[in-house]
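Project outcomes to date are best conveyed with an example. Our students and postdoctoral researchers have been running inverse folding experiments weekly, and each run begins with a structure described purely in tokens. The record below, which covers 653 residues, was selected by the lab manager from last quarter's runs and is presented without edits.
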């Protein structure tokens, strides 16, 4: 059969693999063993559900190193692959992920084979699950023979790397898969030969594959004392070859926490969930409340590359008494914790349960509820005990929690509100003073904010904008800070929607300081503002008329200190929310009711009064320029840049 080419993306990845951007070549073995174990899981499950009569004890993986031939063979008696499956599974890499991977290259250009050593490359590929392809890190040629359970014919897939592969018929006595690696020649830096040494293999299996629930066997040679010679002057030894099982076969989640080191959890996580980085958090639960189950869950350090896309599928692996019955059970995880990876093993679930029935399973609901609670508690603990770590977690998944508050009309807002953290004027000042840049950005919880509130403070104030620096320099912020109020700084699109959904925290309402009705003026200031507004009524009316529908109101305010103008809004919808909504790919034309506020203490106010008396046409131009300037301060686009520039220039010449 003619040689077939790998699909373009696979080829690219394969080249990266072969050129070994990957620092841990040794993981190839755990990847192949893990595939073998999956294949046996599949067959065992099939046997259980279709009464094929196979027993668990029949399944095994064999490792056969051959130093002379320089080959390492891994066999399994799992479900095997048909010709089509060999083609589909080994000719292309993880279909759905591939596209995204390509996008990533196009967008960031960060996967570049010519500079293969950046950690970004590694994390992209890591999230991708290199699996089978990792074989090419140590092998110059790979042969996969496979016969599917129940099929007549067997096929062999052969490839020497990026230039393609062939598939031919072959003979196999029994079902299963056998993978033979032709180990690369040693180089100055790498002794590939080590992967043929029995103790190295034994160590690798202990390190990465101990929990695999089928025996991993290998013939091991050792020297044994010949019986009867032990007391003689020259005890004699002979070489014996014994088949040994190299793994303990106890799944990690069934072990006691006290038996497990972080490293054990980390290795398990990396293997099972295709991540190169250690998890941010490990949650190992055994039986809680009304359901009997063990759960082993992880929160990744970084969001997977496709996390905030539609392609991402949440879920935990579901086992029934040690047998995997579902790869991704979405019902076990609430959307707000969709980033959690892991598995649940329960004795209370039937093996034969179908997906449809599972959705209605009462037991499953009980488990899901207790998982939700458990993740929440662990996060709360981290928030209280290790703020730096929590900040890192927040960077990766905070957005998801805020969506969690907002979604479902706030159904989960009560249980999530104490997990929220924000930047604020208080934290920002602290961060600015903190010379040691190593330290993480400080963030505040809502409870901490409330505890710091001034005695007469009625609301929790917030301001929204594109960056912290921008918000920090907003005219409104300046005044509030001057009066000693703390302001939450919202820089994510979802933030304001999230707070509006919460409406209040501990009976303190949230208030946008970009909204017109926020007033931190004291009584005498209020009287003065009222007086100036009354006196300037006709001036303000001319300006409002000039601006037409663009603004709901033009008024004089005391909330400004050094800035001439600012923009606030009088309805529920703020200008920042308008910005978010108009950036969405819908024809949502929702507009905020904007209020142009003018600083009565600024020289521009005198000028406006002068123009009112002497040149009303010019006053209209000024109104427009000031409105556009206020838009700019808010981080919004000027409505008609050409007109704006023309008017500005008109004033300059
Ligand atoms: P992943 O395991 O992450 O899906 P791999 O590249 O490791 O990706 O494997 C691709 C696919 O090839 C697997 O999903 C599986 O269907 C198939 N496969 C790999 N190894 C075996 C095996 N030993 N027996 C049966 N199928 C296998």
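After processing, the design step wrote out the following sequence:
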């Amino acid at each position: 059969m003619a040689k077939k080419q790998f699909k373009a993306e696979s080829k690219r990845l394969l080249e990266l693999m072969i050129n070994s951007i990957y620092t841990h070549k040794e993981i190839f073995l755990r990847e192949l063993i893990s595939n073998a174990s999956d294949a046996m899981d599949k067959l065992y499950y099939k046997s259980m559900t279709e009464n094929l009569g196979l027993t668990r004890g029949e399944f095994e993986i064999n490792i056969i190193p051959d130093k002379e031939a320089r080959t390492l063979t891994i066999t399994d008696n799992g479900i095997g692959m048909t010709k089509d499956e060999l083609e589909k599974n080994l000719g292309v890499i993880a279909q759905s992920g591939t596209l995204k991977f390509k996008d990533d290259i196009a967008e960031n250009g960060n996967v570049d084979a010519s500079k293969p050593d950046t950690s970004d490359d590694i994390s992209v590929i890591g999230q991708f699950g290199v699996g089978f392809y990792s074989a090419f890190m140590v092998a110059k040629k790979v042969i996969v023979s496979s016969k599917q359970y129940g099929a007549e014919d067997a096929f062999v897939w052969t490839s020497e790397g990026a230039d393609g592969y062939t598939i031919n018929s072959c003979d196999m006595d029994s079902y299963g898969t056998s993978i033979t690696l032709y180990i690369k020649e040693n180089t100055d830096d790498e002794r590939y030969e080590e992967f043929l040494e029995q103790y190295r293999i034994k160590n690798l299996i202990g390190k990465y594959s101990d929990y695999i629930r089928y025996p991993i066997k290998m013939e091991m040679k050792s020297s044994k004392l010949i019986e009867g010679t032990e007391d003689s002057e020259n005890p004699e030894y002979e070489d014996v070859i014994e088949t040994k099982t190299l793994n303990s076969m106890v799944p990690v989640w069934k072990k006691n926490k006290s038996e497990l080191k972080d490293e054990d959890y980390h290795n398990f996580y990396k293997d099972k969930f295709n991540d190169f980085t250690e998890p941010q958090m490990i949650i190992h639960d055994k039986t809680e409340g009304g359901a009997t189950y063990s759960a082993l869950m992880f929160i990744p350090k970084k969001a997977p590359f496709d996390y905030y896309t539609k392609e991402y599928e949440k879920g935990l692996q579901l086992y029934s008494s040690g047998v995997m019955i579902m790869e991704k059970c979405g019902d076990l995880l609430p959307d707000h914790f969709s980033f959690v990876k892991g598995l649940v093993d329960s004795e209370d679930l039937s093996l034969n349960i179908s997906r449809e029935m599972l959705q209605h399973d009462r037991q499953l609901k009980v488990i899901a509820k207790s998982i939700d609670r458990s993740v929440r508690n662990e996060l709360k603990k981290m928030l209280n005990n290790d703020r730096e770590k929590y900040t890192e977690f927040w960077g990766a998944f905070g957005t998801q929690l805020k969506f969690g508050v907002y979604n479902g009309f706030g159904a989960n807002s009560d249980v999530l509100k104490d997990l929220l953290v924000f930047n604020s004027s208080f934290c920002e000042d602290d961060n600015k003073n903190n010379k040691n840049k190593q330290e993480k950005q400080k963030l505040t919880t809502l409870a901490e904010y409330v505890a710091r509130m001034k005695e007469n403070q009625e609301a929790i104030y917030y301001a929204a904008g594109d960056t912290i620096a921008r918000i920090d320099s907003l005219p409104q912020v300046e005044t509030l800070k001057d009066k000693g109020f703390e302001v939450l700084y919202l820089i994510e699109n979802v933030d304001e929607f999230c707070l509006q959904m919460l409406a209040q925290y501990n009976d303190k309402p949230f208030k946008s300081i970009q909204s017109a009705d926020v007033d931190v003026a004291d009584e005498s200031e209020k009287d003065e503002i009222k007086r100036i507004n009354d006196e300037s009524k006709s001036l303000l009316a001319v300006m409002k008329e000039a601006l037409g529908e663009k603004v709901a109101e033009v008024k004089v305010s005391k909330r400004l200190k050094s800035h001439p103008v600012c923009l606030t809004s009088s309805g529920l919808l703020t200008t920042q929310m308008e910005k978010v909504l108009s950036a969405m790919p819908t024809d949502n034309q929702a507009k905020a009711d904007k209020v142009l506020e003018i600083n009565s203490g600024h020289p521009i106010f005198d000028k406006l009064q002068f123009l009112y008396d002497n040149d009303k046409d010019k006053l209209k131009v000024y109104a427009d320029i000031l409105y556009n300037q206020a838009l700019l301060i808010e981080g919004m686009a000027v409505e008609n840049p050409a007109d704006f520039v023309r008017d500005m220039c008109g004033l300059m010449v």
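Residues 27-50 form the longest helix (24 residues). Residues 67 and 196 are 6 Å apart (CA to CA). The training component of this project remains on track.
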